[in-house]
């Protein structure tokens, strides 16, 4: 926990944990302000969890969430009012502390000289020079002056962002590249399914971001506030401005936990879990081990979501454990899916149906989870079957694995880069933006009609790298993405149905059938998932070594 003191009354900090709250109280603070919306990060505790710990420690709390980079004057006024009314000293936090420092700076602008604001925030470790420019510019961040400028700027240091940075460096070592991402930790999220199944340990899926940023690439540890594509500029938290010649957008997807009423309050308790959060995947395995009888519900929200097979993976691994320890005969498994089919590519459905029958799963289609009461252990689903009126049904559960609805990040949805649905609007073959020809996108955030998986990003990164390099050389696009995605469906411990497909559900197997038949459960696919893919991710994909990911020529027939 960091204590970045701005003045005697206010200290700001990056994200805190529940365990930090006691130390905050012990340090003499009397109130906590949370400026970070729930669901921003995969390892982020909810405000409800922080609030409960704060109340137990006798601290006042205020939940004042501000979207990353979207600090409004009204937000600053609210922050100033809270500072005036809360007992002090006050502890405020967000992802990095920048939003909290920005809120204070803007709220102090009416009563303090800008020189004093700059000095106080600099001493606390935050550069508010951009905020001061906003103040003197009447509340708008000017983009005619940049704090830094690069040949290529990459927004997001997830699987797509780091991979494309490495692929670019391998092709043009002299390129001046910056990656923008505020996170300290990078996660191998495909591994969380196996954490929830008792195969991996959670800590094995995490590495420090600094250890993964490619050599020679600048890491700007900040959140993006806005895009100004007509000025070739990106505005960051703290109102700093970064210029670019070419921009690559890969910030991933937002998990919208709050869209399900009551979910945030009960996550990680009362039998409510999700493999979509780093700290909850171990809880999934704990629940599975402890469950001897009752009802286990597995939910799947409307598309799009990252890894469309993940909801089923959790269910199959749980069912396999109960099958092998003899508890399955006393456990009812429900799969409540907002969609109308078991899996979107029909070639893989027969193998999956075999396991649905093996584990005695009740499949309920067109069932979308809308609310949950953790203490009562009841979940309510909206039922929207074709040609019928919508209804709701409430079920009891002893364990429920929840997959949250998913949307593009807020700063993307409100940007000039987004389509009507909020996703970055690209040509699905070249991954170049349809309006701004010096912008490309890859990963979960863009609107090409492919499965949102790490395997897809692995193939997309070389395509973007090739096309960006071609553009630098004054050429047209040379590489195309054909929609490849992969979903290793863990149907039991030791066997996987390896779904590989492209646009339109066309099968795109990586191996000959005699070696690995993807439409059947195989041990070879399990070996690939458990043993081969993690080192391929860390040591090949993120380092620009494009194993089995050679870009397809745009002229290929």
TrEMBL record:
Keywords: FAD, Flavoprotein, Oxidoreductase, Quinone, Transit peptide. One of its GO terms (biological process) is sulfide oxidation, using sulfide:quinone oxidoreductase. InterPro entries: BLH_phosphatase-like, FAD/NAD-bd_sf, FAD/NAD-binding_dom, Prot-tyrosine_phosphatase-like, Sulphide_quinone_reductase. Its cofactor is FAD. GO terms for molecular function: FAD binding; hydrolase activity; quinone binding; sulfide:quinone oxidoreductase activity. Residues 150-263 form the FAD/NAD(P)-binding domain. It comes from Marivivens niveibacter. Residues 4-110 form the Beta-lactamase hydrolase-like protein phosphatase-like domain. Gene3D superfamilies: FAD/NAD(P)-binding domain, Protein tyrosine phosphatase superfamily. It holds the Pfam family Pyr_redox_2. This is TIGR01244 family protein.
